Amino acid sequence: MTRASTVDFGRKKPREVNWSGPLRPANIIRNKFPTYKNGSNGIVIKLADGPEMPSRKEVVAKETADLLDRRQRLSVRELTMKFEKGFNTATLLSNEVKSRHAALLERDILLKNLKSVLESLRGRVGGKNKDEIDESLSMVDILAVQLSKREDELLQQKAEVTKIASSLKLASEDAKRIVDEERANARSEIEGAKAAVQRVEIALKEHENISQKIGKQDMDELKETVQEARRLKMLHCPSKAMDIESEIQVLRDQLYEKSANSLQLLKELKLHQRFEENDMPLYELEGLESLGSVLRIVAQNKEFVDFSKRSIQWFRIQPDKGSKKEIISGATKPVYAPEPHDVGRYIQAEIEYCGRISIARSAGPVDPAAGLADYVEALLRNPETEYNVVILQVNGIPQPADSLHVLCIGRLRMRLAKGKTVVAKEFYSSAMQLCGVRGGGDAAPQAIFWRPRKDLSFVLAFETIRERNSALMLARRFAADCNDDATFCLMNADYPCRSGGQNNVIFVTSMFAAEPYSFAWLRFKARSSLGASQVELTLPKNVFGTPPGANRTFSLKDHGL
């Protein structure tokens, strides 16, 4: 059995006990030596060190590490449960020994009584019964010896159990004392942790308050500065921008009046010339003859005319004498909004009624919009330009004008989308049509007609007139660049090629291709020997395998030659 003196439950001597007390403030730790300096007369002076306050981050990290260390220790409740379990076991063993000792005492009394009874019987009987009684007496003696040995063993066990019980009792007392001490230490540490958390919370609140105060002070100072600047600006420096805007508006009004007066004078001059020639027109064009305006056909005598019963067609004419008039496709309404392609040209409208054709012509060529060319040149530097538009019509069907879309005009294609949904997307080709809206009233200068393919058409309204005109110019410029931008061969002489199956010779005058030269198709201009006007064809590159003057056969049935 283990001796009680050798049982060690982790107790320490009083002088070795070093329980960790509550946390001490971190700012009492010194991290450097004191500072000295040499004073006058060789006297060494110790400088007072300023209080070193650790950063808030270090304090929080240290407190967190201490809390994790305490969490890993054995809890007080578990230690108490272990000692109580051992004490209960020792109590059970002691009770068992006591019960066995009581049973032994009862056996001794019974054996003595049995022995006295057998001895009294031996004196009374004789013969065979006497021998049996003697044998019984010997057995009783043997049993008494065995019981005495067993009693000695039980006494020894009792002594050992008593020692164990005393050791356990002592250990239990030590455990209770340790538990009380640990509980006190835990309480003190908890109080210290709470105090540390409170300090951190107070520091954070102070930091927030300081930040809010500083931010509020900065905002107040900024407001005061802005107000002072506004006051000084109002008192000492009048707004030059407002003056410039006012001057620009005045100049615009004056320019509008001058243009209207000049246009009226030109019309009167034309009318006077026609009066001398006995050619008085029945109609005239009303409106500024500039890009962004609207031209209307009105009667010369200012009477109301029902144009629904008359056939109207608009033309554009170059200012050179003898120039042919170019028909404006789709312009059959009494109202027309000039587009960038009309700049520098005369606009003429022919009104047919009862077999008689009347002409209304602009007094001068259409004037460009100020700054539009520079604006378009700046947009050409971008790979694509986006415009906010509203769909007015789809395939001629009016649409609700409350849905905003984005029209993207790129170098290779045009795309109309709403968010991530693409409504229409098409590369530049000869099948695509793009022009200003024909008719449409006062909204015509801000709208365009776009037909990306034969089965789909849109009428789109822009936010401003300038955006509408720039979109038309960009799209036409990019389309032209895609068709014949990189000219790499220009024939010195006609390049004869005979069409298969026809007696018609096509003379190639120029050839175009977009880089890289590995494209499988070429574009070239040609003219027909049968007097047809110049056309553009697309043929395989291997048609031109020999020097100029060689004949090549190819099909022109798709081109009507």
From TrEMBL:
Pfam families: SCAB-ABD, SCAB-Ig, SCAB-PH, SCAB_CC
InterPro entries: SCAB, SCAB-ABD, SCAB-Ig, SCAB-PH, SCAB_CC
One GO term (biological process): actin filament organization
Superkingdom of origin: Eukaryota
One of the record's GO molecular function terms: actin binding
Domain Stomatal closure-related actin-binding protein Ig residues, every copy: 283-381
Key words of the record: Coiled coil
Coiled-coil regions listed in the entry: 183-210
Ranges for domain Stomatal closure-related actin-binding protein coiled-coil: 102-269
Positions of the Stomatal closure-related actin-binding protein actin-binding domain: 57-98
The Stomatal closure-related actin-binding protein PH domain, residue ranges: 384-483
Protein name: Stomatal closure-related actin-binding protein coiled-coil domain-containing protein
Protein species of origin: Eragrostis curvula (weeping love grass)
Higher taxonomy: Eukaryota, Viridiplantae, Streptophyta, Embryophyta, Tracheophyta
